[in-house]
């Protein structure tokens, strides 16, 4: 499959996908994109704004994974607003991408984010500590103990200081599970979209 991995970070969700697919990763921070390239040298890595890249290139892919930034949606954001002395707007690009993919993308897609401090504006599937908006069903699995897993080869997670973007990555077992569910959905010729709206 031609896979687009948006907001890729260093590829926690992608770690167990193997090299049988043609994968394009989009990350807007050079240093993080370089680490992704070191981990997955066969993937095409693009340093760009993922939100705009999706709009410009969505027709080129069979499966799209999007993990837009989550800090403004998180419960931590809500509980720490007193530190900032004021609340902040949520980043609405999350919902823009869900609506866009649901109505315009012909392949399989999944948009991942944290469980927010508010009632989600669009119904989602909950798996572990994440919400997923997808046009295929994702079978529930237990949340892996280590929510980051072994995505950094040779580096125990506690031994390196990671930027927030890396620290909050999706567990690799969960990433593999969701890719397998998407493939199963394609193999079964399941064209029925999960009802989001």
Description:
Helix 1 (about 30-40) links the parallel strand 2 (about 20-25) and strand 3. It is built from 7 helices and 7 strands; from the N terminus they run ββαβαβαααβββαα. The protein has a single domain (about 1-185), classed as 3-Layer(aba) Sandwich (Rossmann fold), CATH 3.40.50. It has a 7-stranded mixed sheet, with helices on both faces. It has about 200 residues and is of the alpha/beta class. The model is unreliable at about 150-160 (pLDDT under 50).
Q: Categorize the overall geometry.
A: globular
SSE order, as H and E? EEHEHEHHHEEEHH
Q: In what order do the strands lie side by side in the largest sheet? A: 3-2-1-4-5-7-6
Stretches with pLDDT under 50, minimum 5 residues: 148-161
Q: How confident is the prediction overall: mean pLDDT?
A: 84
Main sheet makeup: 7 strands, mixed
Termini gap: 27 Å
Classify the fold: give the CATH topology.
Rossmann fold
**Second-tier CATH architecture:** 3-Layer(aba) Sandwich
Helical content, roughly? 25-40%
Q: SS-based structural class?
A: alpha/beta
What integer value in Å does the Rg equal?
16 Å
